[in-house]
Design goal:
This protein is an alpha/beta fold and 390 residues long. It has 14 helices and 10 strands.
Amino acid sequence: MRAAIGKYVVLPSEEALTAVTLWVAATHIQTALQHAPRLAVVSPTKGCGKSRVLDVLHETVHQPMMTVNTSPAVIFRVIGKNPPTLLVDEADTIFGPKASGDSEILRGLLNAGHQRNRPAWRISDPEHKPTPFPTFAMAAIAGIGDLPDTIMDRAIVLRMQKRKPGEKVSPFRSRYSVPELNALRDRLASWLSPLRGQAARMVPQMPVEDRAADTWEPLVIIADLAGGHWPAQARAACLAMTRHEAAQDEQSSLKTRLLRDIHRIFAQADNPEALATQDLVAALIQDAEAPWAEHGTKGLNAYHLSNLLRDFNISPANYRFDKGTQAKAYMRNRFLDAWARNCPDLVEAAPEPEHGTAHARMAQGKPPTAPAGTLPVGPPGSPAGPRRTL
């Protein structure tokens, strides 16, 4: 199974490949487990192999249920005593800033389903009786950017990247690939089926604690059942991947702090269209309570700032200020999406066009930002559409 998964996808590390293999196996004994770890398949951009990972999982896990855009009510009703393995693609459209109210319900469901005996209660049936719906089920969730913190905290995290020019994978063709993977799935299930009782009684030694131990325990149980090199390999993967995520959390907190500080600096300057890079760096360093004066070896500089903002797709550009001066600068409207996603309490809105600022233009010749708001939608002549003219 490990070789077959590595044949079709390039995972971030050997430890990640080990983790995915054990996670797939764990889905086949999930009725014997106390926790159902999530598999978070995330990447900074599209084209990093997330959907291909889900394709491979679909042919190898226990009773897969693939979905891109489903309602919480459907998931409530398909999870039972022998739950499916949920495979959720394009999660960034579910949990993004424009998501519907159902996203919070789905997030709560995925959080609760990490542990057994955490049902969701709903009024159901013609008698309107309170009814418990089980939530416990293994789930793999793929999307661009990090998932909500509460889900990431309950997940084995795969941080996918684009393949390097020399990295090759076998083409995934249903005619050949699906039978191969299904055969491996059936062999894996046959091996594990009589071991459910033993798995349910196992209390393995874990190299981590608290929620990380809950999340990784099913994978370590599988490794201990397999024996050989698997127990040591599983625990090494657990340590490496949890430490990596701890470092990512620290870096993420730092980047969120940076977004908030930049929002404050723009506000103190009456929210101009742009701030020169050198002025923004200077303002950040001047905050005695912020970490920027000690960032790196000599404090934050323009290079550090650019690196920290790269993951938010924010970069400086040449900008012509009043009086004809030109300098590298950060446009305020480039931060709006990052503020909305990572600092929703700031309640950012698209900037209103200002009169009298036509002379301030990007030196690179890019067209001005479109005005905020939406255009009427509807056929010509309708109340919502443009009026016909004679």
